[in-house]
Amino acid sequence: MSKIIFNEYQIRQIEANRFVASVSDRSIQYTPEFKIFAVKENLAGKGPVQIFKENGFDLEVIGVEKARSSIKRWRASFKTHGEQAFSEERRGKGGSGRPKKENLSAEKKLEKAEVRIRLLEAELTLLKKLDEMERQAKKRLF
Question: Where is region (Disordered) located (predicted)?
């Protein structure tokens, strides 16, 4: 799937739609009102193409696939978090991510160190075996 890159004319055209919060050369941010409206229309049986066309979007510019994937993403958010999903910033919330090193307990730090030692010992053993195999191969050649 190729990424659509909007030119200046297309950006101005998209920005003119009242349901657009902002536009960059690669993405469109829609208003929360439009997202809620679009999801409800989709749940009522309308397809993404119809919803976007009826609300003034030129699908030749934004692409049919962008409309479909947006509605699909919004439906998932709506199903999980309801209408609040569109009125508040949710990125990063609830994600565990990688634990910060400074928050690790002494036991966790020790456990991580022991795992790293075992990994390095295994790596050293492998390198020793490779070195030995190289030496044996050289002896066979001479």
Answer: 81-107
